[in-house]
Amino acid sequence: MSDFPRIFAHRGASSLAPENTIAAFSKAMEVGARWFEFDVDIIGDGSLIVIHDDTLDRTTSGSGSYYQLGFSDIRRLDAGRWFSDTYRFERIPEAADALAFAHAQQMGVNLEIKPCAGVRACASASSSRWLSRCAGRRSPPASSSLPSITSCSPLSTRHAPPSRSAGSSSARPTSGVKARPR
């Protein structure tokens, strides 16, 4: 039996729940998607968060850039109320949370690593090194402004659940993980 066609829920089921949230990924699963795409960026304390835009304005109760913030600041934001009161208090997840959800639900993921404001800092951050190890690839050159896409099949995430600490040395690469420039 073929794995194709693969149907990806873009930023989760973003027409049914607030994009790039666990609620959107859960809704994608409910409607039958076996894969979801999400965006990852790095913030001031080195945490990897799931967000598409380079500002907080469109999809959260915050405003402006998030690059200087820490994850404790991000956790205070409401990432669901803009969509509907049903999703009030939905939070911006860490990338590890999105991967853990995919692992638990045996879903595949396609994550887009966003080019960030401090590309050189991002390329040398421990969390970026973790993603590179996971993908089995070197970090992109510091001069690169193109995002990369990493796809993880449900089978590859089943064998090695993501570490809660993205920079942890216990994070292991998984088989079946591919990275490619976009």
Give the arrangement of secondary structure elements.
Layout: E1 8-10, H1 22-30, E2 35-42, E3 48-50, H2 71-75, H3 95-105, E4 108-113, H4 119-124, H5 126-135, E5 148-152, H6 154-159, E6 177-181
Parallel strand pairs: 1-2, 2-4
Antiparallel strand pairs: 2-3, 4-5, 5-6
Helix pairs in contact: 1-3
Short descriptors:
single chain, 182 residues, alpha/beta, six-stranded mixed sheet, 6 strands
Class per helix and strand makeup: alpha/beta
Strand content: 15-25%
Query: Which regions have little confidence, pLDDT < 50, spanning 5+ residues?
Result: 126-130, 132-147, 156-182
SS element count, helices: 6
Please compute the radius of gyration using only Cα atoms: 15 Å
What's the end-to-end separation, in Å? 28 Å
Assign an overall shape.
globular
Note the main sheet: 6 strands, mixed
Q: What's the overall average pLDDT, rounded? A: 75
What series of H and E elements makes up the topology? EHEEHHEHHEHE
Compute the number of strand runs.
6
Fraction of residues in helix: 25-40%
Would you kindly provide a brief summary of this structure?
This protein is α/β, with parallel strands linked by helices.
Characterize the structure shown.
- The chain is α/β, with parallel strands linked by helices.
- 26% of the residues lie in helices and 16% in strands.
- The chain contains 6 helices and 6 strands; from the N terminus they run βαββααβααβαβ.
- The protein has helices at residues 22-30, 71-75, 95-105, 119-124, 126-135, 154-159; strands at 8-10, 35-42, 48-50, 108-113, 148-152, 177-181.
- Strands 1, 2, 3, 4, 5 and 6 form a 6-stranded mixed sheet that branches.
- The protein starts with 7 loop residues before the first strand and ends with a strand.
